[in-house]
UniProtKB/TrEMBL annotation:
It is found in: Cytoplasm. The lineage of its organism: unclassified sequences, metagenomes, ecological metagenomes. Pfam families: PCMT. Belongs to the methyltransferase superfamily. L-isoaspartyl/D-aspartyl protein methyltransferase family. PANTHER family: PROTEIN-L-ISOASPARTATE O-METHYLTRANSFERASE, PROTEIN-L-ISOASPARTATE(D-ASPARTATE) O-METHYLTRANSFERASE. This is protein-L-isoaspartate(D-aspartate) O-methyltransferase. Its EC number is 2.1.1.77. SUPFAM superfamilies: S-adenosyl-L-methionine-dependent methyltransferases (SSF53335). One of its GO terms (cellular component) is cytoplasm. InterPro entries: PCMT (IPR000682), SAM-dependent_MTases_sf (IPR029063). GO terms for molecular function: protein-L-isoaspartate (D-aspartate) O-methyltransferase activity.
Amino acid sequence: MKDTFKHKGLRQQLVAIIKNKGITDERVLKAISKVPRHLFMDSGFLDHAYQDKAFPIAADQTISQPYTVAYQTELLQVKKGDKVLEIGTGSG
């Protein structure tokens, strides 16, 4: 599966939705604009990849709601050079 202009456009729409919900950290918004969520989902559910909602994926896991991830990340106030240990937040 590829990352096409269509996917990039869908990510930009998702960024606009998250921004409208109050996320202001440009680094967080930039990260969301770059992550190809569709590559982490079954190809049969591509229409759901860039919606602002959690969605079931393999192994009884879910891919998190983008706003939730953005909100949590913004709260961390990560600065350049900071190190973050991520535990138990992924499916693999």
